[in-house]
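Second attempt. The first submission of Stringent starvation protein B had a stray character pasted in from the spreadsheet, which I only caught after the job came back as garbage. Lesson logged: always re-copy from the clean sequence file. Corrected sequence (124 aa) follows.
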Amino acid sequence: MESDNKNKYDFLVQLLSEGDAMVCLDARYPEVDVPGTHKDNPALSLVFNLNFRRPFDVQETGIFATLSFGGRPHKCVIPFEAVWAINEPESKKGQVWEESFPKDLKLQVGANAEAVGPELELTS
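This time the job returned cleanly.
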């Protein structure tokens, strides 16, 4: 998992050097600190940019940022273990770490794929 975290860190830093980066995470992960209204979300998506006016730090262990939720600041802690995808929001090009993808979300995606047909496919 350490190499995955390093890959997530490197990928995020690369995207941030180019502009915005959307981080998809399982907010239920024990070490994640986000507002309580989002804590049960297995697919929380947050957009980051190096030009944030509030404190923002990316380390090899995770993301530490003060984000605004409903106009209220919250000091967020997002360990890379909880991150399952990072992408560029406009193009949607990015990467999914399947081993970090929430298992219960996989079941939902799988059920939706069966209902919709072969067009819906999870790729990494």
